[in-house]
Design goal:
By secondary structure, the protein is mostly helical. It has two domains: 55 residues, Arc Repressor Mutant, subunit A; 125 residues, Tetracycline Repressor, domain 2, CATH 1.10.357. It is elongated and about 60 Å long.
Length: 194
């Protein structure tokens, strides 16, 4: 059993930090295990043994970033919860290394290769669904998880990857548009679209 603050955690932290530093300074194609080893001070054999490939290492960096982001808000109002959540997503996509990580992940996509959702994405979906379920239990009209992802989350990531990241105010506008759609279709349509 590994201690949370032990050598394993220090190695992971040093390697992740090195990957993020290298993504800022170089293109994804230039990254290699020997280069990460040099920057991190962690022996190549340790990196290969723990992650095997740069792809696996990058996936671990993404999962760690996602797991370390703030938990979802619980204000008692779906609109307020979604405003806070969308603003946090927008801020994380505008600041720091997140766009670099995302671009590297996109470069890892190979045509025709079947892909499965990352554990971080599956966990975030679970948390968002719980938020929606709790809001529905309070009697609020709620979108489906797919609607939330397609109309709020996906545009934020799209803009961050391909143009300028959206501001917190623009993220709030996406939330308001989604909730306006939900409000105008009525409760029967919400249940039918689930």
């Amino acid at each position: 059993m590994q201690r949370p603050g032990g050598r394993s955690a220090r190695v992971r932290s040093a390697v992740h930090t090195a990957v993020l530093e290298l993504l800022e300074a170089r293109s994804w194609e230039e990254l290699s295990v020997p280069l990460v080893a040099e920057v991190s001070g962690v022996h190549q054999a340790t990196i290969y043994r723990r992650w095997g490939t740069m792809s696996a290492l990058l996936n671990d960096v993404v999962n760690e970033w996602s797991a370390s982001t703030a938990s979802l808000p619980r204000t008692g109002s779906l609109r307020d919860d979604l405003h806070i959540y969308a603003a946090a997503v927008a801020k994380s996509l505008r600041d720091g290394n997140v766009p670099l990580i995302l671009r590297a992940v996109v470069l890892e996509i190979h045509p025709g290769e079947r892909r499965k959702a990352s554990p971080a994405f599956v966990e975030r979906e679970r948390q968002l669904q719980l938020m929606l379920d709790q809001s529905e239990e309070r009697g609020e009209a709620v979108p489906t998880l797919t609607e939330l992802l397609e109309l709020v989350v996906a545009p934020l990531y799209f803009y961050a990857l391909f143009t300028e990241p959206r501001t917190e105010a623009e993220a709030a506008r996406l939330v308001d548009r989604l909730l306006d759609i939900v409000a105008h279709r009525g409760p029967d349509a919400t249940a039918a679209s689930s």
